[in-house]
Automatic annotation (TrEMBL):
The keyword Transmembrane applies. It is a multi-pass membrane protein. Keywords: Cell membrane, Membrane, Transmembrane, Transmembrane helix. It is found in: Cell membrane. The keyword Nucleus does not apply. The chain crosses the membrane at residues 12-34, 54-79, 100-119, 369-386, 393-411, 431-449. Its main location: membrane. It comes from Filimonas lacunae. This is Lipopolysaccharide export system permease protein. Pfam families: LptF_LptG.
Length: 480
């Protein structure tokens, strides 16, 4: 049953949560655009493409923005309650800290469940769409822009130079157009003036040139027997294809094999298939080495019962081989050893690659759970921390939130890197931040329940003052 206290806590939490969530999401989206700014600027992207990119990036960053928002809003909520002495009133009524944390704990558990469902069902699709769109934007040519006095070669098959542009950005002077071909002949247009415009459908660039010349050389490209043609004109129209400047849509299926694009169920199936595939490496190694170890084919159980003749112990292998064939035997043995080594090394590389792929699948499998559990862990830190510092607003809570979130992010990044490199197992690496932060959350909860002066500077000042007196007394005793 929801009581008035629960409504009070939830009402105080909702506002800061939505505000901090939107701010965190905005910062993470801006971080993405700052990282890819060079690939986005100058591409002539339309409004729909930009909005679609922003939507994909925002959805992709929701699992990261949610823990930060929960941490900051929980600190702000309990800090505001402490600053206005509402926490004191609640505690004086005999209500323990764990009791008035309960409604927000239930809300956090619900948000953690939503975060898991979002990471499992939405993020793989968003990853697929975002990677395809990002690839299309990166490989797209810069937007069509011809400047004065500069040779422009972005249009396939042409190099254009314009001496001067009028203010209308359409009338041009002193135009030179080179037609690039695969042979050695020259084709060139020279004009005093003209009009440059893009067709309404933006598929073609039209030049209507006045008072100029067209130069062309015809004939076999590997021969000196060519003819040179010069054509004068009063008006000449040249049309160029601009289709290469459009964003080409890449099929999503191109990126679907990345483990980031899979749900937990799909990852489980893939991991099971990868684990079964490791048996082939033993059979492959046996098959590829037995071709060079010809004596191994004669090995069977009868070898154990076979009594070899007693021979005199030799000092080296050469004692068994005649001098006439010693070099041949040695060369053949070295050749076979080199071939076996090469095959084994290739098998080892393939095995290592497959292990790396398996680790990536386990990393993504664990990631589906770690970020949702991270919401709960950061709330366990934020709620008691807010009740201890008793400061609301965006001052002190923001500083502590940034500190703990940076620790959370660094531990996540380090753990993932360790898991990818095989330093630790994927489970240990991906849950490293949780293992480290849970004891901190429990410690802060215990301190908050006991009304600890953990962040009270006056308490530390008194301790420092006592230590100073003790040091002074000890010094006087030594001198006396």
């Amino acid at each position: 049953m929801i009581k008035r206290l629960d409504k009070l806590i939830i009402r105080a939490f909702v506002g800061p949560f939505f505000a901090t969530f939107l701010i965190s999401l905005f910062v993470l989206v801006m971080q993405f655009f700052w990282l890819y700014i060079d690939d986005l600027v100058g591409k002539g992207l339309d409004l729909f493409t930009i909005l679609k990119l922003i939507g994909y990036v925002a959805a992709f960053n929701v699992p990261m923005a949610l823990p930060l928002a929960l941490l900051l809003s929980s600190i702000m909520t309990f800090g505001n309650l402490g600053e206005t002495f509402e926490l004191v009133a609640i505690k004086s009524a005999g209500i323990p800290l764990v009791r008035f944390m309960r409604p927000l704990l239930l809300v956090t558990i619900g948000l953690s469940g939503i975060a898991f469902l979002f990471a499992n069902n939405v993020i793989p699709v968003v990853n697929l769409k975002l990677n395809a769109l990002k690839y299309d934007i990166i490989v797209t040519k810069p937007a069509f822009d011809i400047k004065e006095g500069v040779f422009y070669d972005k249009i396939d098959g042409f190099v254009i130079k314009i001496g001067k542009k009028e203010k209308d950005d359409s009338t041009i002077r002193n135009v030179i157009i080179y037609e690039k071909a695969y042979n050695l002949q020259d084709r060139m247009l020279v004009s005093e003036s003209g009009i440059m415009r893009v067709t309404p459908d933006k598929k073609f660039l039209e030049f209507v040139l006045q008072n100029g010349w067209r130069y062309e050389e015809n004939g076999p490209h590997n021969s000196l027997s060519t003819e040179f043609i010069r054509l004068g004109f009063k008006e000449y129209k040249k049309v160029m294809d601009l289709s290469s400047f459009k964003i080409n849509k890449t099929e999503d299926s191109l990126f679907k094999y990345d483990p980031k694009m899979l749900s937990v169920r799909q990852l489980t199936i893939s991991i099971d298939s990868l684990n079964k595939g490791f048996n082939i490496f033993y059979d492959r190694a046996k098959r590829e080495t037995s071709a060079y170890l010809t004596f191994a084919r004669f090995g069977d159980s009868s070898w154990k019962r076979f009594k070899f003749p007693v021979v005199k112990k030799a000092k080296s292998f050469d004692a068994f081989v005649a001098d006439s064939i010693s070099s041949q035997v040695t060369e053949r043995a070295v050749s076979q050893i080199n071939m076996i080594t090469s095959n084994i090394n290739q098998i080892a590389v393939d095995y290592s690659t497959k292990r790396q792929v398996l680790r990536k699948h386990w990393i993504e499998w664990n990631r589906k759970f770690t970020l949702s559990v991270g919401c709960l862990v950061l709330f366990m830190i934020g709620a008691p921390l807010g009740s201890i510092i008793r400061k609301g607003g965006l001052g002190m809570p923001l500083i502590f939130a940034i500190i703990f979130f940076v620790v959370f992010y660094i531990l996540n990044t380090m753990g993932e890197k360790f898991a990818k490199e095989g330093v630790t197992s994927p489970g240990v690496g991906m849950w490293l931040s949780t293992f480290v932060l849970i004891p901190i959350g429990l410690f802060l909860t215990v301190k908050a329940m006991r009304d600890s002066q953990l962040f009270n500077k006056e308490a530390y000042f008194r301790i420092f003052k006592k230590l100073k007196k003790l040091a002074k007394k000890t010094k006087e005793e030594k001198l006396g």
